[in-house]
Amino acid sequence: MQSQEHTHDLSYHQAEKEAAMNFNAQEKMYHSFLRQRSKVTWLCKGDENNAYFHAFLKKIRMENIIVTYTNDQGEIIYNFKEVVWHFLVHFQGYMGTSSNPTQNLRSDYMNLGSRLNMEHQLSLIKPFTSKEIKKSFFSIPDSKSHGRDGYGAGFFKTMWPKLGTVFTKVVQKFLLTGSMPREFHATMITIIPKIENTTKAVDFKPIACCSTVYKCISKLLYSRLSQVLLVLINQNQEAFVQGRSIAHNVMILQDLLKNYKRKNISPRCTLNVDISKAYDTVSWKFLEALLNDFKLPTIFFSLIMTCLKATSYSILMNDTVQGSFKGKKGLRQGDPLSPLLFVMIMEYLTRRFLRGANQSKIRDFLWGWNGNRSKLHVASWEKVCLPKAYGGLGFKDGVKWNQAIPAKYIWAISSKRDIFWVKWINNIYLKNKSLLNYELKNDTSWYWKKLCHLRDKFTRGAIEKAGSGGNRFKTSLLFNSCLPQTQLSSANVFGAP
Questions:
Q1: Residue 226 shares a structural domain with residue 311
Q2: In what residue span(s) does the Reverse transcriptase domain sit (predicted)?
């Protein structure tokens, strides 16, 4: 208002301009603070400083607060110091305890793949330039979490004109001598709930918040190592390998599985391997032997092992740093170098599979040929699929699971779920007709044909509910026929998917 009253007074205009600039700067800083605290999709949910956004912040904060702990005896512990102690014991148990590899590295497995030659070794040990170090620093997003020192990537970028030379010398000193100050390798573990209603430490996933200087060093080693992975890693491994895409494996898998539904094909199976705590339980002794066998230069793999072995952990609980212990095994989730090292470890598993396939040992696990005579089939597939408590091996029956899993899509169509895909199916195929009355045509997609073939099995045991077009169902599992010529009440529950 004063500026409008003094339209010819330049001092008022200048004061108004400075006030606006100061306000915008303060607002930008406040929004940056909120963005770092929220860790949500900022563009979707944080573009307005409204009540919903602050409620979302409060909700996340309440979900991450740890108040109690349930021990193995089922007792609930309320004393926060005891809760912290249990968490420290848990994470130190598998991250701060050394372990020997379950099996020594075997050269006959490693001989089934490539190793680095002299040219690749020289490319790894060539000196890092100041330009590469600066590029590594500036490639770290400002929103990335900082380590225990509290300095994020934004600080280093802002202060680069004044302190860039110092930062560069610190990184170069480590790359030349392998000496890293304790402050740089100190890692803060943020624990993220894996499930709702968490009660134990095992319900949390540890994410490593490394210092920005360490991230820069790790990214430099990552950039060099990624250039030679194409030589070392088998072509069937696509993830985290430069120049490859995991989407290629998805398409190959589709082709491999397309004939599984045919009856007149040779016996075959697909394994889905889920490795528990894969990153956290890696043996450093095994990794060191593996890198050495891959013929990585001694200088280079020594830098990698220094990055791992110098690690010290603290746990962030309720916004407070708790405890400290030395790391003795495992890879840090959040370390740029960890995915590449894990891919190299999985390469050893791939070569073990290749060795077993070459010797035709995998097919003789339960049935097959032994010497000059066939093995006795001591167990049927139905018994193998029984739970372990009932004498089986707990395998999932692939045929029944392949029928059960797509059934949820049929249910979504039948219950008219308000999702785009159901609307698509209704407009393209059903055209407001009942799913029960739909007649399959030849010019439809393969997945729709599969769903239609499963439709009869899905609707067996379901009764049509009047209203809403007659397309919704309710099931009577106990009294309707769910399996051929029987009800669930008299069915073999172990044979059901």
A1: yes
A2: 173-426
